[in-house]
Design a protein that fits this description.
- The protein has 364 residues and is mainly α.
- It has ten helices and two strands, in the order ααααααααββαα.
- It has one domain.
- The chain is globular.
Length: 364
Amino acid sequence: MEATGQSPYLSNRRSFMLKGAAAGAGAYGLGRLLADPSSASANRHRLSKGDVAILTFLAAAEIVETDLWTQYNELGGIQDSEVPGGTGSAPYTAALAVLDEDMAQYIHDNTDDEHSHANFINAYLEAHGADPVNLDPFRTLPGSTATGARDIGRLTNLMQLNVDTSYWTRYRSDSQNPDFGDTLPQAIPELAVGQHPAIPRSDADLTPSDHLQAIANTAGFHFAFIEQGGTSLYAGLAQKVNNPEVLRILLSIGPTETMHFQTWQDKAGNAPPLTDPTTGLTFPDLNADGELTQTNLIMPEPTIFLGRKFPICSIIRPTQSDNPAQAASEALTASGLFTGQSQAFFTALTALAQAADSAHRHGD
């Protein structure tokens, strides 16, 4: 978390990360309970090693989300005491507003939501005798130097992204689902290759032009990419949870990610077709190629689910639960979000993901 408005839960000296994630992925403190351990209530709320691993990975993921959304908010969101930091960039905010006039408010609220998720999960871990997650040692990446952004270390890199836009076609297909091994086409192939900025790198990017609008368009599609990933992550990990209260946490936070995703894919659909004169990146008219890229289809089209013998059904996808945490960390890494991070960071992230994916329901 950033220094301004920092949560005590994200900087606690007992943090998991500062003990060495690779060596300590299985060493979770589980001793302290809020109630008498002999009571039925305490047994109900006792956390298994797997439940702690799941919550630990989710706390780390939410801290990563908070870091990237904070950068977006500093330049393009509402500036207030609720989400402190940054002073805003009028040109970037105006370019984002082309996608929707309420973009600044939505960015602010998404940032606030991710802060709350990270703070809550870490507090819950501590309340049950487990170590909270602290990623502060990895806040080493440079951020934007454009007017409006703070000059502080970041966890994430928003200036060299490869945005996978297959989520766009995935949610519009009525016959393909990644849970069945299907690979969906990219809605914007050029956005998935190269290294495209989603925030202005410096004031040189802030002159209103197709280049600045391309940066804002990239952000719009990146917003949806991030939140659809969280949607599937919570659904996948919920299937591994044992404790009813932990399941309630995942079933309560996960749907907010879905609400974010639907909002952002709707706004991304308003990105104007253009070619970036600086990078050559082209945003096509997505309504010119039929239903698979149609912009106003923001509700999941029914598709195959569980087995092809069943009728198609409108669902979140993917939700297959073998290795959802590793799939999420690999997708974020492939997107360029961590370009410039240390090997220690990747080792820690991998250890957290593997521990979460190793969790299983009792009796499975």
